[in-house]
Amino acid sequence: MTNRKALTEYVSAFTHSLVEQGVSDVVISPGSRSTPLAYACMKQEGLTTYRQIDERSAAYFALGLAKASGKPVMLLCTSGTAAANYFPAIVEAFYARVPLLVVTADRPHELREVGAPQAINQVNIFGSHVKWATDLPMPETENQLAFLTRHLHRSVQNATSEPRGPVHLNVPFREPLRIDLEQDYVSNHEIAHLGGERSLNAESRTFLQQLLKKEKGLLIVGEQTQNMPKEFWTFIEKLDWPVLADPLSNVRGNVPQSAKSLIIDSYDALLKSERFKDVVKPDAVIRVGPPPVSKPLSLFLAAVKPETYVVFDESSMLRDPQSVATHHIQAAEKNLWQLPVENKSPNAYREKWTQASHLYWQVVERHCQDELDEGVLAKVLFDRLDHCDLIVSSSMPIRDVDTYFQTTERDIMLYANRGANGIDGVVSTAFGVQAAKKRPAYLYIGDLAFLHDMNGLIASKMQETDLTIVIMNNDGGGIFSYLPQSQEELYFEELFGTPTGLKFSDAANMYDAQYLSAETAEQFAAALDEPKTKPVKMIEVFTNRENNVTTHRKLWSRFDEELAKR
Amino acid sequence: MTNRKALTEYVSAFTHSLVEQGVSDVVISPGSRSTPLAYACMKQEGLTTYRQIDERSAAYFALGLAKASGKPVMLLCTSGTAAANYFPAIVEAFYARVPLLVVTADRPHELREVGAPQAINQVNIFGSHVKWATDLPMPETENQLAFLTRHLHRSVQNATSEPRGPVHLNVPFREPLRIDLEQDYVSNHEIAHLGGERSLNAESRTFLQQLLKKEKGLLIVGEQTQNMPKEFWTFIEKLDWPVLADPLSNVRGNVPQSAKSLIIDSYDALLKSERFKDVVKPDAVIRVGPPPVSKPLSLFLAAVKPETYVVFDESSMLRDPQSVATHHIQAAEKNLWQLPVENKSPNAYREKWTQASHLYWQVVERHCQDELDEGVLAKVLFDRLDHCDLIVSSSMPIRDVDTYFQTTERDIMLYANRGANGIDGVVSTAFGVQAAKKRPAYLYIGDLAFLHDMNGLIASKMQETDLTIVIMNNDGGGIFSYLPQSQEELYFEELFGTPTGLKFSDAANMYDAQYLSAETAEQFAAALDEPKTKPVKMIEVFTNRENNVTTHRKLWSRFDEELAKR
């Protein structure tokens, strides 16, 4: 794709997307850097263009337009102090709550802060007087149109949701700035925005009710920090779609017997099999909660590109890094459970998933008898838990849960810090969860994450607690062994393995915690069964990093073979 | 003082101070909130006022004025979008490097962000396009004029130092806004700014040469991270003023025999004695480096208010929290050592200090034989050190150095984190110092600070090191015992004592460090003398918090008694 073609597509998608979302007016101030978008605005059907030489006047004019029409108005100017001249009207719009889409053209990064003419620092230039600001990517590569239209979608949502206000989009362009006025633009990157603030509007309800009639549908449940309401269980039993339950969905625990076959807890493993993926392509997907941990699932969805992929997200920041969603419903997910749904059980599509899942757990059973790795050990833990909470660290532990935590009626809830996926502060978060729930809590954590927040143990000296900490000590950053760079021996251990040679019995002594260690599944089971004698019980499990990788892979290929036999 | 009087004084000091520093032009845009300053500008001698209704034009006009005159120009506007209209010209001034003092009047804090008219968020409103921004205090109380004039001083210095540029002062006013036009203003809060960028100008040289002729002079040396040059020692020997050497000045170690009587290492203790303070009032003070740790010293200077108090500080942020300095020389302190100075030794004033200091160390000797506290133990450490570096944590350890570290010819340098005085990260900083200096290092640290950065010990696993860590374990926040709230028993231990009951032998085990402990001076000395067998040697000294306070106080009263006998 030539630069000009990419540029033309980018700005066409830009204006097209805004019009799709109800923007009908743009106020343009002349300038060079904004040329591509200015042309696109002129060409765009459904967009009325106004011109005003002085950007300050332009912005105040747009404010009047937006105020009276009740619709968001786009402003477009070139780079430099042009942007600064918008400022007074932006401040007014912020406090008067008037929706503006302030688009400032900018120099490319290599011309910023080097004394180039009309190049000032435009990133976040309006500070706390816009509701949201973003610095968009340069129009250079393919595949960025979906990202662009989602950002525009977010901008309009942000500007028009209460309290309404201005939003700033900074758009860098590199020369040459001429677009191809003959080039057609076919929109295929739009995402539909349905549904209102807290409850669903009529359009969303109708749309969803139609969708729920489909047979080949998937319901994906991401992290939930509270138990699902009863309506959820009634809803999924009637719907009879496979429910792909993220480790943090908290619908793998406390599961009614009648719903057990609906909860697919093994999809992370199942979707590693090409064989299986081929036969379970969905027609419709609905997701609630953040994107699941599972990489095979996100790869599957990105490859399949379901015709309809609805995401419930109350924020204008749609969590959809692969840009696969087709519909964004900005409303609380509880609205979904309240929709009427015809009973379509038994659903043949769902049964395919249930059977594969059943087979998977048979393979796991045998695997656990033959092999020893962190996952096998983790399962020893998971199978014992009841009337308690389990906190897991990022990196490998959360993935072990994905692979080895089987749906259960037992009363157990899971927590992890997946907002930013840090390995810091997990010990302290576990103490916090326990303090809120006031029942036994278990922390399942790797050695590096534990080391990171060892200071958190001091909480046990300051307050009552009941925490069992299971440390998987593989002497370093286990997850890196799964990454491509692990093939390169040079520098690998220094940079990624970060072996510390530390053992944590001393930490236990220091904080007066009960300490046990284990190397086999039997030893680990015995350590778990050992009565708890202190507020904090620490079980250190010594494992082998390389072994973890090979046995994990063995499990997956074993399952694939079994599947082939069916 | 009535509100009107305070308001009048405040704005009079404001304009007076700017004129003193060479501002001769102000561009005023009419508005209500800026009324007090607008009147003060009109009344101010030496200030030419221009008026311009449109703030955008006003700012561009001021830009032209400043550009052509080469002098900083003041802008004054009311609250609200008036400020936002300055933005284009401010951006231009920032990149064109033109000095502007942008003064925006603001509502008082209780009218911000509550929907009051013309009240927008003006704090840091110009973002990264001003060199510096500050939100000034309301004109309400006495004693804030010195703070105000120093801030104005800093503003002008900042705007006019290379690269020059705009500076923003946000000034809140509460109604009523009328000032008393008859009220006279006598400036007595001005600080003189002398001297240029890196070297001294002629004015500074002449001024300093006169000053150095005085007998009753003090040279205060704050933190230095490199050894003083030879010129320093020659300079102070001729000058023969007492040199008050902060623990981090690094002129208490590596001291030539000939200079030993000049270095006053005991001033923190001496200046606790009212008797002594009465007889050593200085006529002149020169300080280099940041303000010393010693609270008695800063109280002494604030009470004495020396006629001339010169501070060398290369930054426009003058570090002078009590506003005692009379002259700010914004130049490198090495210029001072290069000035010619007549030999006035022996100086009777200096000898008073030397004798008192001598007496102090005699009292300390006896005290160390009779008592046992952290300071006494610290002296055991300090007296042994040679060819090494000593890192000390904030809070009590740095104060122990102030009280017990005696001037020595031995080769020892001291380091601490006093930029923000945090207790975090000290262990890691010590490893960093050792890695740079590549010779044995000692860390002298309290138990809380050690706990805070225990993770830092992992450095010993990653790189070569040679560190001895002395932990003063008094089970909690020792320094709080010296504060007034320690008299209030209720909640004190929970809130301030923060006892953890931790012992650190386990930490030593975990990180494979050599571990020794001590409770008496003899045991501690033996532990220090014990050969080092690991990269990290840890000596934990168990002390008693309450005892530390009482024996410290005993030392000071003992010294005062001895002084009375002379």
TrEMBL record, chains A, B:
Its EC number is 2.2.1.9. Residues 211-381 form the Menaquinone biosynthesis protein MenD middle domain. Pfam families: TPP_enzyme_C, TPP_enzyme_M_2, TPP_enzyme_N. It is an enzyme of class 2 (transferase). Pathway: Quinol/quinone metabolism; 1,4-dihydroxy-2-naphthoate biosynthesis; 1,4-dihydroxy-2-naphthoate from chorismate: step 2/7; Quinol/quinone metabolism; menaquinone biosynthesis. Transmembrane segments: none annotated. It catalyses: isochorismate + 2-oxoglutarate + H(+) = 5-enolpyruvoyl-6-hydroxy-2-succinyl-cyclohex-3-ene-1-carboxylate + CO2. Binds 1 thiamine pyrophosphate per subunit. Residues 427-531 form the Thiamine pyrophosphate enzyme TPP-binding domain. InterPro entries: DHS-like_NAD/FAD-binding_dom, MenaQ_synth_MenD, MenD_middle, THDP-binding, Thiamin_PyroP_enz_TPP-bd_dom, TPP_enzyme_TPP-bd. Keywords: Magnesium, Manganese, Menaquinone biosynthesis, Metal-binding, Thiamine pyrophosphate, Transferase. Its cofactor is thiamine diphosphate; Mg(2+); Mn(2+). HAMAP family: MenD. Catalyzes the thiamine diphosphate-dependent decarboxylation of 2-oxoglutarate and the subsequent addition of the resulting succinic semialdehyde-thiamine pyrophosphate anion to isochorismate to yield 2-succinyl-5-enolpyruvyl-6-hydroxy-3-cyclohexene-1-carboxylate (SEPHCHC). PANTHER family: 2-SUCCINYL-5-ENOLPYRUVYL-6-HYDROXY-3-CYCLOHEXENE-1-CARBOXYLATE SYNTHASE, PROTEIN PHYLLO, CHLOROPLASTIC. Homodimer. This is 2-succinyl-5-enolpyruvyl-6-hydroxy-3-cyclohexene-1-carboxylate synthase.
